[in-house]
């Protein structure tokens, strides 16, 4: 019994040893790669120039140069001839245009004038004259004068001085400072010449520097001067204004 068990144990040990698996190919490659990397690292540390030259040779061996073919450019267009005719343009196509219709303006109706009547009323427009003042005809006056019963209109011919005069040396008193103080000055007076040719209603129109001389001028004009009176269109004498200028020399 004991011998049988010992034999089984011995057989079991021998079978385990014979049943141990072989290492895989991938594992061996990994272990080899690790050894190579370890050796490369030691060489990189202790001989960097050597490892650098090896790296360059390896990179040059695996570098692939790719050459790009040159790009084909289009042929240049020929330059146009300066004397050649241009290309034909597109034919113009006329477009139909419709003009808008003008608006129609309606003229307002023209009022028709009233026809004259043949009635007997005094206010009718067909009568030559009515009972009012605006019917036309002639009145009691001539209508040509300044008043309804006057003889005519205003003066057509102005009054004219015919006689009388004023002496500036004898008719005026000597002013203070002598006659030279009044020399070169003048006064203009306005009078009304009546139908008898005499002047009246004298007023100073443009005074001189000497008021006393102006008053003397008014008195002398009304006393001494005589005029041919103004006349109207019919030749009748009418009152009219006259302006007398007195200068001192």
Automatic annotation (TrEMBL):
<feature type="domain" description="TonB C-terminal">
    <location>
        <begin position="179"/>
        <end position="242"/>
    </location>
</feature>
<dbReference type="InterPro" id="IPR006260">
    <property type="entry name" value="TonB/TolA_C"/>
</dbReference>
<dbReference type="Pfam" id="PF03544">
    <property type="entry name" value="TonB_C"/>
</dbReference>
<feature type="compositionally biased region" description="Low complexity">
    <location>
        <begin position="113"/>
        <end position="125"/>
    </location>
</feature>
<feature type="compositionally biased region" description="Gly residues">
    <location>
        <begin position="132"/>
        <end position="155"/>
    </location>
</feature>
<feature type="region of interest" description="Disordered">
    <location>
        <begin position="66"/>
        <end position="178"/>
    </location>
</feature>
<keyword id="KW-0472">Membrane</keyword>
<keyword id="KW-1133">Transmembrane helix</keyword>
<feature type="transmembrane region" description="Helical">
    <location>
        <begin position="25"/>
        <end position="43"/>
    </location>
</feature>
<feature type="compositionally biased region" description="Pro residues">
    <location>
        <begin position="100"/>
        <end position="112"/>
    </location>
</feature>
<dbReference type="InterPro" id="IPR037682">
    <property type="entry name" value="TonB_C"/>
</dbReference>
<keyword id="KW-0812">Transmembrane</keyword>
<protein>
    <submittedName>
        <fullName>TonB family protein</fullName>
    </submittedName>
</protein>
């Amino acid at each position: 019994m004991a011998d049988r068990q010992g034999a089984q144990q011995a057989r079991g040990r021998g079978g385990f040893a014979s049943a141990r698996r072989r290492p895989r190919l991938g594992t061996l490659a990994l272990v080899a790669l690790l050894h190579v990397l370890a050796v490369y690292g030691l060489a990189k540390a202790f001989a960097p120039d050597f490892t650098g030259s090896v790296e360059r040779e390896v990179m040059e061996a695996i570098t692939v140069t790719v050459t790009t073919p040159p790009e084909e450019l289009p042929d240049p267009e020929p330059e146009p001839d300066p004397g050649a005719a241009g290309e034909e343009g597109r034919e113009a196509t006329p477009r139909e245009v419709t003009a808008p219709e003008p608006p129609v303006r309606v003229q307002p109706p023209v009022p028709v004038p009233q026809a004259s009547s043949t009635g007997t009323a005094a206010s009718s427009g067909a009568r030559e004259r009515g009972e009012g003042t605006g019917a036309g005809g002639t009145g009691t006056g001539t209508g040509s004068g300044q008043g309804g019963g006057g003889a005519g209109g205003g003066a057509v011919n102005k009054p004219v001085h015919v006689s009388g005069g004023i002496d500036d040396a004898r008719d005026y008193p000597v002013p203070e400072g002598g006659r030279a103080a009044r020399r070169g000055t003048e006064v203009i007076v306005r009078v009304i010449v009546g139908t008898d040719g005499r002047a009246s209603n004298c007023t100073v129109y443009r005074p001189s520097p000497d008021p006393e001389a102006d008053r003397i001028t008014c008195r002398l004009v009304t006393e001494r001067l005589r005029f041919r009176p103004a006349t109207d269109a019919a030749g009748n004498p009418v009152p009219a204004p006259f302006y007398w200028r007195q200068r001192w020399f």
